[in-house]
Design brief:
Blueprint lengths: L3 H10 L3 E5 L2 E5 L5 H9 L1 H10 L4 E2 L1 H29 L9
Antiparallel strand pairs: 1-2, 1-3
Helix pairs in contact: 1-4, 3-4
Length: about 100
């Protein structure tokens, strides 16, 4: 099974986005890719956590690539710190609104 960084990198390379829609995590891909969807589902909780922390509760391909690098270097805690820092830099609240 691919690790979290590999899955995020694959989504980014495919031009995919992650977005919170209602109470669900949505994986938006320009082309159908069942294998990538299955891999993303296995990492669903971690991907949802990162997406919830992101500005506007969405991760673009470019941001996914940056977070994949952070996850590869420092694991999920490092990727979370990067996305939280970005949200704060953009003037967002210190934690998502409930």
């Amino acid at each position: 099974m691919p690790d979290l960084a590999e899955v995020m990198e694959a989504i980014a390379e495919a031009g995919g986005w992650l977005r919170i829609e209602g109470e669900r995590l949505a994986l938006l891909l320009p082309e159908e890719n069942l294998t990538l969807k299955e891999e993303a589902t296995r990492w669903g909780q971690a991907l949802a956590l990162l997406t919830l922390e992101a500005p506007r509760a969405e991760l673009s391909p470019r941001l996914l690539a940056v977070l994949a690098d952070a996850a590869r270097r420092w694991g999920l805690p490092g990727a979370l710190l990067v996305v939280q820092g970005l949200r704060l830099e953009l003037g967002g609240p210190p934690s998502p609104q409930a």
